[in-house]
Amino acid sequence: MPGVSRFPSFARAVVLGVLLGAAACGNDTPTTPTTGTSTAAAVEIYTGTLQPRALGFYSFQATGTGTASITLGSLTNAATGRPLDAVLQIGVGTPVGEGCSVTNATTTPPGLAAQLNHPVVIGTYCVQLLDPGNLATASNFAVRIQRP
User: Fold this and answer.
1) Half-sphere exposure of 131 (CA within 13 A, CB side)
2) CB neighbours of 126 closer than 8 A, spacing ≥ 6?
3) pLDDT tens digit string along 79-111?
4) Predicted confidence band at 39 (pLDDT cuts at 50, 70, 90)?
5) By three-state DSSP, how is residue 19 classified?
6) What is residue 83's DSSP assignment?
7) Nearest CA among 108, 109, 122 for reference residue 36
8) Contact 64/148 with Cβ under 8 angstroms?
9) pTM confidence score
10) Exposed, middle or buried: residue 38 (CB in 10 Å: 0-12, 13-18, 19+)?
11) Which fold does the domain 42-147 belong to in CATH?
12) Which of 80, 79, 86, 100 lies closest to 145, judged by CA?
């Protein structure tokens, strides 16, 4: 029927999904706790402004053993807010003094999928963002760090 909203059907599907999910939560099977590592992933967002030919870095803590996934998620012109698809270098490593000793890096434009994956154990790491000469003006960025 023209002009009729499909929302009620969608709402019924959502309510049914919530009810089925709640019914599954009643499982009383005991689990064996693990020690030493955390399997839950945490997400941190590193944002800032990068000048042409400059670099910046951000330190993060891995609280378990696994893989840190790094994503250059957005890059925009700081003055206009317009999206940029300039290629930047993202790297991961360990902090040294007031810098980052990069051990794994890639050059990439912004995207939605992780561009860099790096194995980590419990400890302190850093993400470095570097403009190799592709930015013409100051640019705002957002880097997503998913880590154990």
Assistant:
1) 19
2) 57, 58, 59, 60, 92, 93, 94, 95, 100, 101
3) 999 999 999 999 999 999 999 999 999 999 999
4) low
5) helix
6) B
7) 122
8) yes
9) 0.72
10) middle
11) Jelly Rolls (2.60.120)
12) 100
CA atoms within 13 A of residue 17's CA, in its CB half-sphere: 6
Among candidate residues 115, 114, 121, the one with its CA nearest the CA of residue 148: 121
Distance CA 147, CA 41 (A): 5
The Cα–Cα gap between 74 and 136 comes to 16
Residue 34 has pLDDT above 80, yes or no: no
Per the structure block, which two tokens stand in for 66? 């696994």
Residue type at position 50: L
pLDDT in tens, 102-147: 999 999 999 999 999 999 999 999 999 999 999 999 999 999 999 9
Is-contact 74 57, C-beta < 8 A? no
User: Residue 62: in which H helix or E strand, if any?
Assistant: strand 55-62
- Average pLDDT in the chain: 82
Among candidate residues 78, 54, 72, the one with its CA nearest the CA of residue 113: 72
Task: Determine the residue type at 85.
Answer: D
Tokens of 84: 């940029």
